[in-house]
C-alpha cells in the first residue's frame, strides 16, 4: 500500500483501507505506515487511550523494534495517554520499506521530529506530549529534542532517556577496533525453533509480551535459519554515528524537562551526573538490578514514571485514572519480518558504551532480574 505525506495505510493483517491517524478509535491498537515529507516510510503502533490527557512517542534502541514498548504503551493508554511507538528505518516493520535511506542517529532524529509534527498536526497526539527513547533510542530523542541542521527541535513537552542517551564512546579506541568487538552476532546455523526454545525459559517472569517482542528483532532466511532484521552495514553505520557524537554538546540546547532512567550497574555511572549538570531541567529515576531492556522487564513501573513525568512537565494535565488498559496488540507471527533491543548498556569503563546484541540462548539473562552487561 502507498502512503502519502501525513497519512497512513494500515498493515494488511489489521485492515485493508487507508485511514487518517486520527481515525483510530479510542481504546484500540492499530498498526500503520506513515510517509514523511522526504519519502521515508515508517511503521508505527498506535495505542489510543479511552480518554486522553496527553500523548507519548516511544522510540526503540539499536537492532530493536517498536513492539518492545507494547506492554508499557498499553499501560500508558490505560492511564489516559495516547501512545505511538515507531519502527525506525531498517528496523521492525519499517525494514519492509527498502526505498528508505540508510539509517544513522541524525537521520533517525530527523524522522522522529517530522513524525511528531505529523502526529500533532492530525490530532493523534494532543495536549502535552512526551518523547521517550530506550538505549540508542535515547540518543535519537536527545538529538531530536536538541534539533539539528534544518530541523528544529522536536515539539515535545517532556523528554525521557531510558538507559541510554547519555552514553558516549571512548575516542581513544579506534572505531575499527570497536566494531570488531561490538558487531552483532550472525546467528550462523541457528534455526527459529532453536531460538524460541532457548529464549523462552530465559524470559520467564517477564510476562507474555516479552518473547514475541524479542523475537520481532529477528527473522529467517530462506533456509529457515535466523538473521537480524537490521542489516550489518546499517548496524555499523548507526554505531559509527554514535561514536562520532558527543551528547555533552546537545544537553545545553535541550529546553524541556528530562527524566533519565538508568538500569543495573548504570545507576552509578558518572555520565548520569554529567548529563544532569548540563541539562537545564533533569532528574534521575534509578532502576537498580534491572535489565537494560527495562521497558520490557518493568513496563508497568516505567509507564507510571513516564505518566508522572508528563504530568509534572505539562501545563496542568489532570491525572487520568489507571483504568482498563488498551486491548493487547496483535500477536507476532511465527517468524516475524521485523528486529532484540540490546543497544548500548553501560560498559565497565565509564566513558565507553557497548551496543547490545540480540540475546542468544547462551547469553540471555539467567533470571528475570539479572542485569546484562555487554563489553
Could you describe the 3D structure shown?
The protein is α/β, with parallel strands linked by helices and 375 residues long. It has a single domain (8-313), classed as Alpha/Beta hydrolase fold, catalytic domain (Rossmann fold, 3-Layer(aba) Sandwich), CATH 3.40.50. Helices cover 27% and strands 15% of the residues. It contains ten helices and twelve strands. The strands form two sheets. Strands 2-1-3-4-6-5-7-8-11-12 form a ten-stranded mixed sheet, with helices on both faces. A two-stranded antiparallel ribbon has the order 9-10. The radius of gyration is 19 Å and the shape is globular. The termini are far apart. Mean pLDDT is 81; it is low at 1-19 and 316-375.
Examine the coordinates and then state which fold CATH places here, giving the name of the CATH topology: Rossmann fold
Name the CATH superfamily assignment: Alpha/Beta hydrolase fold, catalytic domain
Which CATH first-tier class would you pick? Alpha Beta
Q: What is the residue-mean pLDDT, rounded to a whole number?
A: 81
* Morphology: globular
Largest sheet: 10 strands, mixed
Written as H for each helix and E for each strand, in order along the chain, the element string is EEEEEHEHEHEHHHEEHEHEHH
Unreliable sequence segments: 1-19, 316-375
What amount of the residues lies in strands? 5-15%
Give the end-to-end Cα distance, rounded to a whole number of Å: 42 Å
Q: Count structural domains.
A: 1
Annotation, overall tally of beta strands: 12
Q: Order of strands in the sheet with the most strands?
A: 2-1-3-4-6-5-7-8-11-12
Number of continuous helical runs: 10
Structural class: alpha/beta
Assembly type of the chains comes to single chain
Give me the Rg, rounded.
Answer: 19 Å
CATH architecture descriptor text: 3-Layer(aba) Sandwich
Helical percent range? Answer: 25-40%
